[in-house]
């Protein structure tokens, strides 16, 4: 397990460019299985989860060609379905969340697929019912083998139908859209997730020959086609990285320009950070964040305490709630942070409390943060990163703190942030990676 040794209290400055989006990459990479033709993808982030998924595609028989640092070509012409039965498949597929989206394409193109319980962040229960109920409605048979913890699905043919999802699951919607694209007839998905990465997936599928309408809404119509063609696709900038950099700049009083953010795809993210008092200027497609001695959390119009909660898109993404929480610890004012979706994502506040932050964990979903307004600095401590976003939040806290901090298990951070130590050091941070 690698660790970061962080010297706190340094102001950063300069420009930083976000990586291609992690969660978009996981969807898009699975979609290459839908065609035997070549798919070229640009802005692929070099992060652990994505590297693992590319590796897994290669093991399944996809021809993978690296064109440059961020561009790859994929050709899923000869798929080795025997690979499902190997130990290697079990081990690799179980180590990331995104592998669940191999199911939809494999089911629709080859009539069967199986997967062990997927990994990803341990942030509470992460059910998969939406995926499997959707596949069943399309005509697939589903079996969960308790002994091996494997999910099996198979179908001689998928048939389009009306599906009202019980929840707007992001990866669930992606899976069902991919399966329905090659099903016979028309599928309607209501209560579909509609975040930018799903929109990107649907647009890519349409370029491949799929017939999807309603993109960007929670009502998708998919007219099944018999085959899909190759295409070229470029990933959006990672909105969670962008939010993390906004929080980092505010916490460390740094002047940072975040380049090429894809502003039109950021939804309510910039406004949510503005409600914490963080100033920012939009310069073309860049976000400029000035160095701020202090930032004050707004109250609601009636004077009551601000509440920031996650919600399905176009609401505020749950993946930035931990960042909001850490940024609030040095703001002026009070905020109630409400993580509605995941039930174990706020426990990392213990570490922030050890660092001197004033936080009351009300229950697993809610924490009240009483900002210190820089009257007291956080102090460096030794801690372990529990999940990807808590990990980056702790990194931000450590960069703003007095003294040295150590964060263990930084592989959690590497799952989603490309070379974060090197990129922040280039802005003046002092982060040493120790193996
Ligand atoms: C690989 C990937 O893309 N991971 C993302 C994906 O995970 P993933 O697709 O696994 O997450 P889901 O959208 O399925 O659900 C996330 C959680 O929210 C709950 N839920 C979901 C929808 C809803 O209407 N109500 C509700 O309570 C679910 O029960 C679950 O606990 O979307 C999540 C929600 O944006 C993000 O945190 C993850 O980073
Ligand atoms: C929860 C996350 O990832 P995953 O779904 O891959 O665990 C995340 O990206 O914040």
Present as ligands are: uridine-diphosphate-N-acetylglucosamine, phosphoenolpyruvate
Distance between termini? 7 Å
- Work out the strand percent: 15-25%
Quick one: overall form?
Answer: globular
Total beta-strand segments:
23
Low-confidence stretches: none
Question: Which properties best describe this structure?
Answer:
single chain, UDP-n-acetylglucosamine1-carboxyvinyl-transferase, Chain, binds phosphoenolpyruvate, alpha+beta, 435 residues, 14 helices, 23% strand, globular, 29% helix, binds uridine-diphosphate-N-acetylglucosamine
Please write out the topology.
Layout lengths: L2 E5 L5 E4 L5 H10 L6 E5 L5 H12 L3 E4 L5 E4 L11 H7 L9 H8 L1 E5 L12 H9 L3 E5 L4 E5 L7 E3 L5 H12 L4 E5 L5 H12 L3 E3 L5 E5 L7 E4 L4 H13 L3 E4 L10 H7 L5 E3 L2 E4 L16 E4 L11 H8 L5 E5 L10 H6 L4 E5 L2 E5 L11 E3 L3 H13 L3 E5 L2 H4 L5 H6 L4 E5 L1
Parallel strand pairs: 2-14, 3-13, 9-10, 17-18, 21-22
Antiparallel strand pairs: 1-22, 1-23, 3-5, 4-5, 6-8, 7-8, 10-12, 11-12, 14-16, 15-16, 18-20, 19-20
The structure holds uridine-diphosphate-N-acetylglucosamine (UD1) and phosphoenolpyruvate (PEP).
Uridine-diphosphate-N-acetylglucosamine binds next to helix 1 and helix 6.
